[in-house]
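User: Could you check the structure of this?
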Amino acid sequence: MIRLPQAGGGPRAYEPRPASAHPPAGEDELRSRTVYSAAHVVADPYADVSPDGPAAVDWDATLAFRRHLWAHGLRVAEAMDTAQRGMGLDWAGAAELIRRSAAEAKAVGGRIACGVGTDQLTGPADLVTVREAYEEQLALVEETGSRPVLMASRALAAAAEDPDDYLDTYTHLLRQSAEPVILHWLGPMFDPALEGYWGSADLDAATETFLQVVAEHPDKVDGVKISLLDAGREIELRRRLPQGVRCYTGDDFHYPELIAGDAKGFSHALLGIFDPLGPLAARAVRVLDTGDVEGFRALLDPSVELSRHLFQPPTRYYKTGVVFLAWLAGHQDHFVMVGGLQSARSLPHLARAYELADGLGLFPDPGLAEQRMKSLLTVYGVDR
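Assistant: Sure, the predicted structure tokens are below.
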């Protein structure tokens, strides 16, 4: 038994589930859907750094986690929001992460896509400077042989005055990209600085601008990644995409239904929640590969409660829960994050994350997870 603190109340007793047999990693590539897990970075807990200083990354543990995801047949979306871009990981750290992960992917046969942004800009910038920053990062990702993900840019959101500024910037980048890219639309719930992206706070108007970019360059767009937490809008948008352009759901609230799809189509996936759910997600998609939609939903639907918990407002702090679960699952030896972000969620929030993840059987060693949860409670002064 373990006593878990509750929001607004005292501790209550919880009995962890017994150890369950975890199926071995699947060796076959996922066939029916293209699935990326946006992966977190592991901090170096021994580095003497301040929260606002350059990130100190444990590269061995970080790459080991990516091998874990690849071993289950998932692709890795590298240096994305989940890796704390702009929230502890600066461009120098992200560039090193991209180089190392791309080299590791080549060594082990993993599939990878890497984020391209403008986070080397630390102050106000005009549109030309924003474009040059994008170009610098695009060149690096292309040099590694990875698929670029053109991420939403805080600097572009601040510099753009109207939809045409977005159209001009993205048109320029797509014309010079060597290979098709993934276009990324991250909503303000993930980053408040992206309010009004694509030139309007009206999502209908913003959608039209976004789709215009795709429609004018379908040969340069592998797919679009939608992170608006609005299933209806995503479904409507994916039905309007040109033939051959994928929709990658980034909706951590509705992913089972969006991936399952309907008679008119489905979404692929590029999700932060597939960091802690990697093995379960891969198992579910393999069931879907057989045409068994009900079996897929039966596996993945129960995980939505955990995902909604981790991504509750302020949504941008979901990374804390992701890294916490990686520690409990034994993928890293500590609960320390770059930028000190381990303090961004409360103890009751973390306790509930533990309970939900344990209920799903996500921990390869439930005893280890329980021991680590108890150690955290001790640090907080909770009577176990």
